[in-house]
């Protein structure tokens, strides 16, 4: 029988049970259920949680201040570990306040038991904080004080509590010394039959004057200590409220009791009057006045005398002084009769075994604090629980008396001094009851099992009672509703709001009223009946508060009841209804709701039954009989809890505000930069941002979110284990997130819609849920991130990433844009040079992942920076290797006596390896031929070096390649390759899009070299004057091309026709009659019409290739021979038009150009690390190849710099006035004239260097010139605006050639 069992038993006897109030609507009575298990009682749960927290704080304080003493301790917070690290150096021990602050922080974390040192031993000494308490005897009261004391307590009846005339008694408000009171009459009176039968009549009913309580003979004061009043920790954690965490632990209470007993014995010169060594005598009540816990000077002079008296009383048998460690410990042989609770034990002799009574419990406190609790004291017996420790002896030593365990600040309705002795009653079990743990009831207790019964006033110890001789059961069990639904939720929230019993919170809006029309099949809303006249209104409110809190806890903390409450016909409620229910409950009891859901979410970590039977570490971590959920049940539970988190966020009236706040929080900021301006301080968005911060920083909500996200990775780990253990069994379960996304499929008309909302509310909710899910995932990741790019694949961070990844894969169904997944918070804090390079060697595992494995978290500019950093690193490595080899060759040649011929032979053979650059010498007359010849059979190590181009050598063009010449080379070469005469690409006259020629006569190596040329340009950070459809970039990155939107930019007219085919309404005519389209794909190639019937990928034929030579044409079949006849291809109908569109897109972008594309793709990938391409999306890759074609002159003017000019000069103003009136063609010519490229580089105009430099006064009619390598425009100072316009236009129209570098 553990300490938690004793605590539960005492609280079961003293707790005020929740019962259905008498004015409850009759519809609720069918849902009422008796609670037979103590762990399902909300008051016991709260008390046990407080008790566990205090024990954890005590353990952490001992660990921090004293350590474990083990030689090989490795716990960072353990004093022993710190001392071992310091070696012979001094080690400063934390003081009590600092240790308390650290202990409270550690005990408040998730899974705090993981922070305890495994070698920590139970400590019998009282906490060090007790050393600051001084017990001071109170002076005898004068006659005047007695009269005042008598007058002050007249008319009051506080049984068993001493009232000091100078200070109030502690506990009348905090619950430390509060007594039980009745809960009314009627059906809601749960304590009338359970209340102790006192022999005297209550003074509240008879009006008799109560007996005046005896003045306490001593008080407790706190020893003055030096304190820095500017210290936050000293003023917060050094307060009495936090010290109570140590003062009210079992060991501290025991120590204080011994001190008070010894003090009283010394003052009276005799033995204590109390037979119970833990109970304060009835005539000498024990109090802790608030005034006594101060550093008053009146009590300072008596402390020395008091200590001497106390020391005199602490004598051993031989007169030796006894310190606290030498006092009787909990394991000593002192007999303690410290409880009035009886225990039913089976008949027969049992071996005696003393229970552990260490004040420092050694059992692990897990997420479920009730793992050691017994079944209900009022429940019927059942099979023996092998894990429970039965009572071995009626005289066993108990760790603490129930009176102290239950009164030490753990439970509000329990007295501090002692529990009132109720009359023993028989607790007959109710038949056919089922426990929460699955055990069934029986009429008698099984052998080896014991249950608690009510305490006897005449006995101070546990006694064996024969069940057959027990009196008949007159008590009642606590009650709660067994199920929630929309109507019940509305009723509960309405009652709590009407009674003013809602929790104080910072969620917005603070209260929610019913705003749905409800189901038309439902009746009127539930209402309370009229209050009986003989029942006090305040008592009835209290009954409702207890009952509704118990109901919320009972249902929301139980996974089975929770799922059953929000499902109908085997399906979850629709998302909007579920969000509404959680919204209402979180506005009346957010702490209760989030804590209960957190408890229910613990069942998500139970492994499936199939894994519990395996011999694996998992089977050791979890008991085999633990209740487990299927993935479907776990997904429903997770969806319910996630909707509670969504409901915690403020209710925003527009999607735009949601996006704005989400975008701000994605940057790791509470407020955006624009909100800090004086004009925006009154913006309502400012208040919404602050309300969002209040919701997302709520400790209990964040704790729930972390547990849910941790469960995602855990459940998927279980699925992976199951797949590896049971391959091919055909019993694969759906993913744990499947129920959530099925619920978020708002186009699913088969969903269970409960409440009716307006169309605007439904539209807003469809946008709200995905955005807030992303915000919660980001919040968890930001709070758990340690600043490293390597992140855990499990735990809350890994689960949040898994949710974001799944949502990104389903972003089209969820109507999410790519920008909504951005999390600039991470990109702004990662290194842009070394981190991407190290990522190339990182291997993703289930336990560790890298942030760059999820590129959609970063904005495109950041990804381009990472991509170029990788390329620059590879380029720098190749350059350094060549430089190092060149130096080594020079050293070798200088040391060896080699003739010049041999030196030349050696240099020729090592020329490729020692060359620092990829040198290309290209003539303008044969630029395509020279380019192919220069790139043919180049090694990879050559291609990775920086490129240098010598262009137009035969025409004696001047220019040193510092970047501008190579830009010119790529521009001219690509423009030449795109010409129709080369038969490589075909360019659409309207869209200017370039695409492969189906069945081209050109050999495939040319396509590979063209891909290599494009790769070299991107690798060296250059853009090309070419326009490819997005389908090409999607295919390069391995993304599917299946939708019309994927071909809309390259073939807009075709996409429009296919869309019209899909949208056709057959009421206007049959598809085959209106469109007359056959199920085939055709293309016009070299004047020939080639057509093929479209087939499935498994049966499709290769597209015919046209031979380039006459010999090839005579040896191969004619490509047009395979054209189907007029009646061979089937017609496109309404039944197959969707498949027709899908197959047509596949033939257009894949089948007809497959050999050409594969060759181009091979060449394109030669310069890039395969992993680096995964950073890019199709849009980013397109911007890297083509740049940005839109040129914003206003932005260009803002980024421009000046040399010799000032932005306010006349010439500069005239220049920009002329340029802003240019059309797109002239804008591109200007940009090409200055930078050698007519495209804005990827990243925008901010990445462009545009400098205007003064070049004379213009009197000699000089034209403007440029240094394209450096982006400098040499602009003379012309006399007027018209001359400037003419000279600039002339320069731009005649800029062909490369006269300037």
- How does the major sheet shape up? 4 strands, mixed
**Residues in helices, as a percent range:** 25-40%
| Unreliable spans | 151-210, 270-474, 618-624, 675-679
Q: Which structural class matches the secondary elements?
A: mainly alpha
End-to-end separation in angstroms reads 90 Å
The main sheet orders its strands as: 17-18-20-19
Chain-averaged pLDDT? 76
Which term fits the overall shape? globular
Instruction: Report the total helices.
Output: 46
Rg, nearest Å: 42 Å
Query: Beta-strand percentage?
Result: 5-15%
Biased composition (Polar residues): 199-220, 335-348
Pfam families: AZUL (PF16558), HECT (PF00632)
Catalytic activity: S-ubiquitinyl-[E2 ubiquitin-conjugating enzyme]-L-cysteine + [acceptor protein]-L-lysine = [E2 ubiquitin-conjugating enzyme]-L-cysteine + N(6)-ubiquitinyl-[acceptor protein]-L-lysine
Organism: Lasiosphaeria miniovina
Structure description:
With 1301 residues, this protein is mainly α. The chain has 46 helices and 20 strands. The strands form nine sheets. It has a four-stranded mixed beta sheet with strand order 17-18-20-19. Helix 13 packs parallel to helix 16 (575-586), helix 17 packs parallel to helix 23 (699-725) and helix 23 (699-725) crosses helix 25. The longest helix is centred in the last third of the chain and has 36 residues, at 860-895. It starts with a helix and ends in an 8-residue tail after the last helix. Residues 199-220, 335-348 have a biased composition (Polar residues). Its EC number is 2.3.2.26.
